[in-house]
Amino acid sequence: MRIDCRIGLAAALFAVSFVPAAACAASFDCARASSATEKRICADPQLSRDDESVATAYRLALAAAPLPFAIRDDQRHWIAEVRDKSANNADLRTALIDRATRLTSRAVADRGAAYAVPLASIARHCTAARPIAGPARSRLRAAFPPRISPGNAASIRMAR
User: Using one digit for the tens of pLDDT, what is the confidence trace for 6-55?
Assistant: First the structure.
């Protein structure tokens, strides 16, 4: 049974690979394309793929954003002010690639910020420690390079 599923999946992927590039849909329904820009995107397979990459990056940015409404407003503004005002296909392609890059980098930054621990939440648990003396000081001197003072490197410890 497992082999049959794999063969069926491989056959489906093989069949899809022969679909012509023009059949690749943009991020919107080309049958409902109303603006001239949307019609240009539907007519050009490369623009359609670029528009789809913008849509993918937009979904990633929305998922990672702490304030998704800001991403939505920014996307609406970009569509009205940049995408729809592109004079030709080359300008439109450049705008789409630039937008996909910006959205992807924003999604990565927002995802990284979500995992960063705010320093204020750590600082309230920290207190100044007394200087290290004895054998522990010797071990610290061996562990840290000479330009870092062992006493300063361990001057903050977590309060219990």
Answer: 444 444 444 444 444 444 557 888 889 888 999 999 999 999 999 999 99
Instruction: Render 29-85 in DSSP notation, one character per residue.
Output: -GGG--SHHHHHHHH-HHHHHHHHHHHHHHHHHHHH-SSHHHHHHHHHHHIIIIITT
User: What CA–CA distance (Å, rounded) separates 93 from 60?
Assistant: 20
pTM: 0.57
Whether the CB-CB separation of 140 and 154 falls below 8 Å is answered with yes
Please enumerate in sequence order all residues whose Cβ is within 8 A of that of 99, keeping only pairs 6 or more positions apart, or say none.
54, 57, 78, 82, 83
